[in-house]
């Protein structure tokens, strides 16, 4: 799909009430998701790693307003009562949306499904880490503006 077709598709989705659009054919897969004031677009092509085919393979054009999907933080079981919410990407941990805003969560807060725990910034993109289940914050394991690696524990929670 060329950039003109992709822009037309994005415009069509943004002008309707559609929140998610998926299209796949033999050459590519396109996923467009809308919600929380952010639009997400994924375009993938089959990966052939020989130098010859890489030069000939069409590359998906980047759309300036598109951002990658916020990753979902996997939860690892710590014990019977507590689970760990971990970082699904490498980046910088931020407890609040801006320096002068209150933190998304604090110890003792009950977090609902889909509610944000924090932001992990990766390459100037702010990725919200959201709750996959209702839980209570037992401990916050990272300090604000601290670097995190993939799989680093961020929060200790109690599933409700």
From TrEMBL:
GO cellular component labels: acetyl-CoA carboxylase complex
Domain Lipoyl-binding residues, every copy: 82-158
Pathway(s) this gene product operates in, as recorded in its UniProt entry: Lipid metabolism; fatty acid biosynthesis
InterPro entries: AcCoA_biotinCC, Biotin_BS, Biotin_Carboxyl_Carrier/Decarb, Biotin_lipoyl, Single_hybrid_motif
GO function terms (MF aspect): acetyl-CoA carboxylase activity
Keyword Ubl conjugation: no
Keyword annotations from UniProtKB, A to Z: Biotin, Fatty acid biosynthesis, Fatty acid metabolism, Lipid biosynthesis, Lipid metabolism
One Gene Ontology biological process: fatty acid biosynthetic process
Entry superkingdom: Bacteria
Function: This protein is a component of the acetyl coenzyme A carboxylase complex; first, biotin carboxylase catalyzes the carboxylation of the carrier protein and then the transcarboxylase transfers the carboxyl group to form malonyl-CoA.
Official protein name in the record: Biotin carboxyl carrier protein of acetyl-CoA carboxylase
């Amino acid at each position: 799909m060329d950039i003109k077709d992709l822009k037309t598709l994005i415009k069509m989705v943004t002008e309707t009430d559609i929140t998610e659009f998926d299209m796949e054919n033999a050459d590519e897969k396109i996923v467009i998701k809308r919600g929380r004031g952010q639009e997400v677009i994924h375009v993938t092509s089959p990966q052939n790693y020989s130098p010859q085919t890489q030069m000939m393979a069409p590359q998906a054009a980047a759309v300036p307003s598109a951002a990658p999907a916020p990753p979902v933080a996997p939860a690892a079981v710590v014990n019977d009562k507590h689970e760990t919410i971990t970082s699904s990407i490498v980046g910088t941990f931020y407890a609040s949306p801006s320096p002068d805003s209150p933190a998304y969560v604090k110890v003792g807060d009950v977090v609902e499904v889909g509610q944000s725990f924090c932001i992990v910034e990766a390459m100037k993109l702010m990725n919200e880490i959201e709750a996959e289940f209702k839980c209570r914050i037992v401990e916050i394991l990272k300090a604000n503006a601290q670097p995190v690696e993939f799989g680093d524990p961020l929060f200790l929670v109690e599933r409700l």
